[in-house]
Amino acid sequence: MDTVLITGASSGYGRQTALHFHDRGWKVIATMRTPRPDLFPESERLRVLGLDVTRPESIAAAVEAAGPVDVLVNNAGIPAIGVFEGTPMSRVREVFETNTFGVMATTQAVLPGFRERGSGVVVNVTSSVVLGHMPLSALYKASKMAVEGFTASLALELAPFGVRARTVQPGACLTTNFAQRATGGTPPDALVPAPYAAWAGRAMADFTAQELFTTETDVAEAVWCAAHDTTGQLRFPAGPDALWLAQAR
After folding, report:
1. HEC states along the chain?
2. How sure is the predictor about 176, in pLDDT bands with cuts at 50, 70 and 90?
3. 185-191, long-range: CB within 8 Å, 24+ apart, which pairs?
4. What is the mean pLDDT of residues 44-50?
5. Of 103, 129, 160, 194, whose CA is between 20 and 30 Å from 136?
6. How far is CA 73 from each of CA 31, 83, 119, rounded to the nearest angstrom?
7. The whole model's pTM is what?
8. CATH number of the domain that 121 lies in?
């Protein structure tokens, strides 16, 4: 039975991906900072473990407890919206610690097992912001673009060992708590200095007026496809808006 380990599985894309794999007969290791078994149905094929991607000891403990896995899905991440000039550097470091360094650290923890077994897949969930130039996302895009570049080079390093690396690029989803978490506790007005206010307001209005959006199921299905792909495709846009951006690019 194949096993998948998913980070950030307490909600949104991560939780839906865990359910998606479980429904298709996989053994699922759903990880999150604070374990919540009640978020999932009781099953011998589903375990919930604590894993904080910013803490090396937490990563090591979770990987050891999980045992051999066939697929790692690096989904854990924190959103960031705002004008970069108004973004504290503490927030910059916080976003990169989770979105970028956390992906790298968790990946590094499973690679010895993948390499020794001669198989395995790393699926890194990034964002459709990497597909186009979007306002108010400089910090978030930078953290996700770093993962895109990391994954592209990693895929070349791992190929001789039969290990694959892929990215999934979700579009904008209205059913996750992205917007609520995007300021990191900073008052929204502080993230948009007064000289930017009118422009930022127009940019947000344009975003909310778009007609195409992504669902959590779109992302789970894209992760599933990325985990099973053997064609060499590196990037998997998820959702109609992400697909549109990829095609336009």
Report:
1. CCEEEECCCCCHHHHHHHHHHHHCCCEEEEEECCCCHHHCCCCCCEEEEECCCCCHHHHHHHHHHHCCCCEEEECCCCCCCCCHHHCCHHHHHHHHHHHHHHHHHHHHHHHHHHHHHCCEEEEEECCHHHHCCCCCCHHHHHHHHHHHHHHHHHHHHHHHHCEEEEEEEECCECCCCHHHHCCCCCCHHHHCCHHHHHHHHHHHHHHHCCCCCECHHHHHHHHHHHHHCCCCCCEEEECHHHHHHHHHC
2. low
3. 186/82, 186/87, 186/88, 186/91, 188/82, 190/86, 191/81, 191/82, 191/83, 191/86, 191/87
4. 98
5. 103
6. 10, 30, 15
7. 0.90
8. 3.40.50.720
Q: At what angle do helices 138-158 and 89-96 cross, to 10 degrees?
A: 30
- Nearest residue to 169 (alpha-carbon basis) of 219, 97, 105: 219
Lowest mean pLDDT, pick from 63-72, 99-108, 121-130, 184-193: 184-193
Which structure tokens are listed for 215?
């669902």
Q: Which domain holds residue 45?
A: 3-248
Q: 203: number of CA atoms within 13 Å, CB side?
A: 14
State the chain's mean pLDDT as an integer. Answer: 91
Half-sphere exposure of 144 (CA within 13 A, CB side): 26
Q: Give me the residue label for tokens 């990215």.
A: 167
At 133, is the pLDDT very low, low, confident or very high (cuts 50, 70, 90)? confident
Tally the domains of the chain: 1
Q: Which residues are catalytic?
A: 140
The answer to whether the CB of 87 falls within 8 A of the CB of 101 is: no
How far is 186 from 156, CA to CA, in rounded Å? 39
